[in-house]
Specification:
Elements: H1 8-16, H2 26-34, E1 40-45, H3 54-68, E2 72-77, H4 99-113, E3 126-129, H5 131-134, H6 139-146, H7 151-155, H8 158-165, H9 172-175, H10 177-188, E4 192-194, H11 200-203
Parallel strand pairs: 1-2, 1-4, 2-3
Helix pairs in contact: 1-2
Amino acid sequence: MVKVITDSEKIKEAIERGVEEIYPSKEEFEKKLKSGKRIRLYLGVDPTGFDLHIGHSVQLKKLKQFQDLGHEVILLIGDFTGLIGDPSGKDKVRNQLTREQVLANAKDYQRQASKILDFKGKNPVKIKYNSKWLSKLNFADVVELASHFTVQQMLERDMFEKRMKAKQPIYFHEFLYPLMQGYDSVAMDVDLEVGGSDQMFNMMA
């Protein structure tokens, strides 16, 4: 059985260093960590390129801190969402990749992540692929998920506002991305998602 570390200083380091925001509150999360309960958290990465970037390394190091505290850590490979591509921060639609390209990139990502995370040992990081649940959704499921969002919410996002002003096209499938990322958290029943500030809308979905 994995031992959960409740040392106040180590917990403080994990939730404060390099952390901009914690929702719903830092105090509530800190209390949960000090309780000794083992939490489940994850970082999702879409293998849309050959290499992880510097931003990913910061997030991977944060995962490692929680792994060292004894918590259950998941590295989620967005092999399904990677086929669509996250529109966050993009002034034009992403080029869609083939499944073969996505899976090849995913192998490279895991190899690179292993330089920071421990995928073996007593408390190994788990690798999961979101195609396992997203590929099983039918059209009725997608409509039900979409009913919780408005077009106004989507269009208020910075990159979509910029595209509209520049008269650049916004494709409907790009609106579905935050729905899928939100569903990832539900499917894995996680307590926490780690991500960059540019992912805030998707993580709060």
